[in-house]
Amino acid sequence: MINSNENVRKVLQLLEKHNCDAAYITGTDIYLNEYVALENSHRFFLTGFTGSTGELLLTKDGQIFLFVDGRYHEQADQQVDLQKITVIKCPLDKAPFAMLLLKLKELALKKILLDSKRVSLVSYKKIKEEKIEVVSLDNDELTSLLNIDYTPHLKEVYFLENDICGSSVLEKLATIFSEEESVSARSALFVSALDSIAWITNARGFHLPNQSVFLAYALATAEKIYLWVEDFKIFPTHMDNCIEVKKMSKNFSEDLAQIKKQKAIKHAIIGENTISYYNYKIISSIWNAEGELKTEDDFIIKHQTIKNKVETQAIESDFARADRAIYNSIQWLKKNFTKEKISEATFFKQVNDNFKKEGAVDNSFKTIAAFKDHASIIHFSSPDEEKIAATGDMILLDCGGLFHSGYSTDTTRTFLLGKKSDPKNIQIYTLVLKGLLSAQSAIFPIGTVGSQIDLIARMPILKAGFDYIHSTGHGVGINVHEGGIRLGGKSQTILRVGQLCSIEPGIYIPDFGGVRLENVVKVMAHPHFENMLCFEPVVFIGFDPDLIDYKMLTFEEQAALDSYEEACTLRQRSFLR
Q1: For the chain, what is the largest distance between any 2 Cα atoms, rounded to a whole number of angstroms?
Q2: pLDDT at residue 181, rounded to an integer
Q3: What are the structural domains, with CATH classification, of the chain?
Q4: How confident is the model over 527-540, as pLDDT tens digits?
């Protein structure tokens, strides 16, 4: 049990010691991960908030501000002490960090303390742009202060077969170094995003919860990848000659300097969003001449986000396993809730057990199993032993698995227990279904950006006077949230053939319930129309016919639903009677 009051007191003493106005606290780890074990999250130790994202500002006079996006508005209110913590609920068009910057201005803060290992370079730069002095903790002082002693279990790392990844390490390096104008044979890419390291090395480790990645930093050249890891004994003795594993130590900067000299590396390229300020200081001290250090955030993700045919086949195979786990879980609850008392917590466990039966190594995120009013909490994370399934309840299930390939699956279904439902449930379910079908069946020109698809999915819902305060979709890959593609209101990322993304509109009504329906789709060249694109689903689980008002569907939406249900029926995963 954490003592957040005592932890806040310690941080206030630290602010006094360094003569700072406030501390900027993140929930990430030293690899800047989204999903972090709670026992390794500074933000959790100070607030008790368990969301995967959110920013924290603690001022020297004891004010605490927690900035959360729409997924966590309701959850944050329930998890933190609202007498002591002010929850800043960010609108759809403002990220939590952007709102934190506005608060810094509002409070006219002059001197900020932060942990350089857990803050990105781009965040540091934006704080400095506000003419704020930064005190950088470089020696895990905050971690020690909060008595955080987290040691992940490091499983053995394994390398994927070519029939899963489709391209060798050297082939990936050749593609990056030959196609990128900013990258030459005398360049090196410093990679700290763990999913990108896993992708470029074709290796998996499952070192963190809900991720198939392994813990490392990487330096990639045109011919070789150097890895710095905590324990090189967990790597196979025989590896590809183009990968060299080194133990992370205090000699890290010396290793980099030696490689630079030996390989005559003229330029180092970093990503401002993915490198910590701490690592930036190390890299910039080695490539320190003018023009030696370059920044480009998408130099790997632009390639990683495009799945080749072999990768796609492996991913589709994993989704088929996940489909079976989800379909069987829904059928199990529908058939058994009248025979025995089944709680949220029991259903949560049943879902996870069904994924294991299908061969999942881990879940790709914590399963969301929300009964009735709990479904309005977008990322509900506390399945209740006392919340018992009952006739007429609408259930929201959002879950995913990680199998041998290490690619994430992600699917959401909302369904009814029994045959009769509140008319409001039917209305909001059908509206969300209309949004999903509209986006999934869209035909759009090359060059279309994410915000345009977001609006297509959102429009049927907006027309009925509802909305949802999260993006319509995100990229899916090794991590369940992969960069390179986003379906959001302000997203200008261009959709490209080979990408995978989710389409997941929703409606959430506090104290009543909520609906979200999510399919992951791949971006395809349209089979008939030149220079046009379309989506093809990789999820095939039918929708609940008892929650659909078919009179609300347009002719096109009904045709799209019929086609999809036919595909689900062929796979024996439709709920149509």
Answers
A1: 72
A2: 64
A3: 4-137 (3.40.350.10), 158-304 (3.40.350.10), 309-570 (3.90.230.10)
A4: 999 999 999 999 99
Note the pLDDT of residue 297: 81
Q: What are phi and psi of 369, to 5 degrees?
A: -120, 100
Query: H helices within 185-308, ranges in order?
Result: 194-201, 252-262, 277-286, 301-304
Question: Which tokens in the block code for residue 312?
Answer: 């796609």
3-state secondary structure of 29: coil
Whether 362 contacts 403, CB under 8 Å: no
One-letter amino acid for residue 56 of the chain: L
Look up the pTM and report it.
Answer: 0.96
Distance of CA 11 to the CA centre of its chain: 29
Q: Which helix (H) or strand (E) holds 145?
A: helix 141-145
Q: Which residue has the tokens 């396993």?
A: 321
DSSP 250: T
Task: Retrieve residue 60's tokens.
Answer: 């020297």
Contact predicate 158/236, CB 8 Å: yes
Residues of the chain with pLDDT under 50: none
478 touches 515 (CB < 8 A) = no
The Cα–Cα gap between 378 and 506 comes to 9
Cα–Cα distance, 453 to 438 (Å, whole number)? 9
CB neighbour list of residue 468: distance below 8 Å, 6 or more residues apart: 70, 458, 461, 505, 506, 507, 508
H and E: helices and strands count for the chain: 17, 27
Which residues, other chains included, contact 555 with Cβ-Cβ below 8 Å and sequence gap of 6+?
A: none
Q: How far is CA 519 from CA 251, 314, 411, 422, in A?
A: 46, 17, 6, 25
Q: Return the DSSP state at 327.
A: H
Q: Is 392 helix (H, G, I), strand (E, B) or coil?
A: coil
Residues in the chain: 577
